[in-house]
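Fill in residues.
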């Protein structure tokens, strides 16, 4: 839990450090909103896990705030006490992020997901499921490409930190934690023209001074 708290604090400090305003909500304006399918690639004991889901949020100047939900696409099979079992993991919660000069063709994209969920383990032969409630923190950073005014693609690298794994024999938090690569497809109205105009006006004011 201490590790997750440190990741949360670090993530918010990084996002605050990127900002150009004095505080997150000082003179902030809602300039748009978006929805986003999300695909995440990670590893579990040498095997690849593909998770999919979606999210969305309100765009407040260069920041956004909203929610997300993720679940495993492929079921990872492994052995525990010589029994074949299947694993499913899902989580969802808050999603906050930042884009730097998003009106540029390619620009920085950074975000953090903070969610709650569970891991379901089903043993085929006996047909029962054991659940672990988990807490997940995933900070990420990468680049975003403007495909159209209403469509953006972001590719990021991050670290998924999972806590709460305690009832699955032979498994621990670190087995479900690790590096993750994500593709995010954002659709919506982003208010890029407003930020572009504001940037041009700021340059003119600096030139006139």
């Amino acid at each position: 839990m201490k590790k997750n708290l440190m990741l949360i604090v670090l993530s918010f400090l990084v996002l605050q450090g990127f900002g150009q305003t004095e505080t997150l909500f000082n003179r902030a304006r809602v300039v748009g909103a978006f929805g986003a399918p999300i695909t995440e690639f990670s590893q579990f004991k040498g095997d690849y896990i593909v998770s999919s889901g979606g999210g969305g949020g309100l765009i407040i100047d260069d920041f956004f705030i909203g929610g997300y939900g993720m679940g495993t696409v492929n079921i990872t099979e492994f052995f525990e006490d010589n029994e074949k079992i299947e694993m499913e993991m899902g989580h969802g919660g808050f999603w906050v992020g930042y884009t730097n000069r998003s009106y540029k063709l390619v620009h920085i994209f950074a975000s953090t997901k903070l969610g709650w969920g569970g891991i379901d383990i089903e043993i085929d032969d006996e047909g029962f499921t054991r659940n672990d409630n988990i807490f997940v923190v995933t900070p990420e950073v990468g680049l975003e490409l403007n495909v159209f005014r209403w469509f953006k693609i972001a590719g990021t690298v991050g670290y998924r930190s999972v806590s709460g794994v305690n009832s699955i024999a032979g498994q621990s938090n670190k087995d479900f934690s690790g590096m993750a690569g994500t593709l995010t497809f954002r659709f919506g109205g982003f208010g890029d023209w407003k930020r572009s105009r504001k940037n041009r006006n700021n340059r003119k004011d600096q030139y006139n001074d």
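The beta strands are 30-44, 47-60, 63-72, 76-80, 83-100, 106-123, 128-148, 151-163, 178-189.
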